[in-house]
Amino acid sequence: MTVKDFTFTLHKTNGKARLGEINMPRGKVRTPAFMPVGTAATVKALYLDQVRDAGSDIILGNTYHLMLRPGAERVARLGGLHEFARWPHPILTDSGGFQVMSLAALNKMSEKGVTFKSHIDGAPYELTPERSIEIQALLDSDIQMQLDECLRLPAPREEVQRAMELSLRWAERSAKQFEKQEDRAGRAMFGIVQGGDVPDLRIKSAEELKAMDLKGYSIGGLAVGEPQDVMLDMLDITCPVLPENKPRYLMGVGTPDDLLQSVNRGVDMFDCVMPTRAGRHGLAYTRYGKVNLKNARHAEDSRPLDETSDCPAARDYSRAYLHHLVRANEALAGMLLSWNNIAYYQRLMQGMRDAISEDRFEDFRLATMAEWEKGDIPERI
User: Fold this and answer.
1) How many CA atoms does the CB half-sphere of 316 hold within 13 Å?
2) 258 is catalytic
3) Exactly one of 57, 94, 148, 258 is catalytic; which is it?
4) Would you say residue 272 has pLDDT above 60?
5) Does the pLDDT value for residue 380 go beyond 60?
6) Looking at 247, 271, 295, which one is the last position of a domain?
7) Catalytic: 271?
8) Exposed (0-12), middle (13-18) or buried (19+): which is 379, by Cβ within 10 Å?
C-alpha cells in the first residue's frame, strides 16, 4: 500500500525507551534510529548500497554544504537529492544553521537571518528561515529542519535566551514557508528545541514549539562542548515536555554510549559524523568497545574485529591487515573501518529496538555497557 502522509506510530515503551515507526512515501524509518550523515550527498568513504545493507533506513543531507556546492537549484534540475545520490529512501536535511555558525569565515546575525561568506571561496550568501526551507524543498528532502541559532556551550544565560527566542520566531517563519510546499503531506518539518544548559529555557522552548503542533521535534544545541551528564540532564528535562505521539530527534549525537543513554530517556532519532570520521582516522567501534588500529599491538593479530558480525569489514579482515592499511595510509582503511562502524551503530540500534519490544531494555543497556567495560575481544581458546 502506498503511503501518502507522514505518520509516526509509537508501538511500545519500556521504561522511557520508545519503539516506533515513521512512515513516509519513500519508506519507513524504524525507531530508535541512527541516521548516517551524508553531508555532501555522500556518506564519506561508503557506497550508499553499503549504508542501506548495514541497516540504515534514512540518511542525513546538509543544507549548508549542498547550497554552496553543487547548489540546491542544480540538484533540483538533476532530479532532487534522492536521484542525484541514488538513495531512493527517506532523507532528512538539517537547516544549515549550525554549519553557518561553525564553518563560515564571517557571519552576521539579524532578525531576518544570517549573512555569511562561504568557507570554500569567500562568496557572500544569505540564509533566512524561508530560504533554508526553500533549499530543503529543492533538495526534495523528506524531513526538513527549521533554521535556528545554535550556541556553543558554555554561554551566558542572556545569550542563550536571546538565541532560543530568536529560534522560536524562526520556527514560526519556517513553518509558514513549509506550508507552501505542494506535497507537504508526505513530508515533515521539525522544530528545534534550544535553551542551552538552562532548564527553564529548555522547557519554554519545548512548550512553545509543542503549541505549534509540528510533525516532529528536534533537540538541538547539545553535544556542543558540554559534558555528557549535562546533555543527559537536559534530555531528562526536555523529553517529558514533548508530545508522546511525535518523533524526538537529538541532533548531532553521538557515541554509542550517548545513543544508549539517550534512548533510555525517550529519544527516537540520532545523527552523527562520528562513525565515519572515526573510521577515517583508524578507530573501529565494536561490541567490545573501541579498537584503535593505529596501535602496534595489532600488527600480527590475525583475529577479525568481530567474527560474529554480519558486516564483512568486521568479520572477514584481520586486525593485522586493517592495521597495515591504516599505517600505510591506504584509502581502503577508511572505507573498511567506516563500513564496520556504520554496521556496528545499526546493530546497536537493532539491539535496542529488539530489547524494547521484549521488555528488557534495562537489561540490554547494562549488558551492553558491561561488554564495553570488559574491553577488547578475548583471545580464542
Assistant:
1) 6
2) no
3) 94
4) yes
5) no
6) 271
7) yes
8) exposed
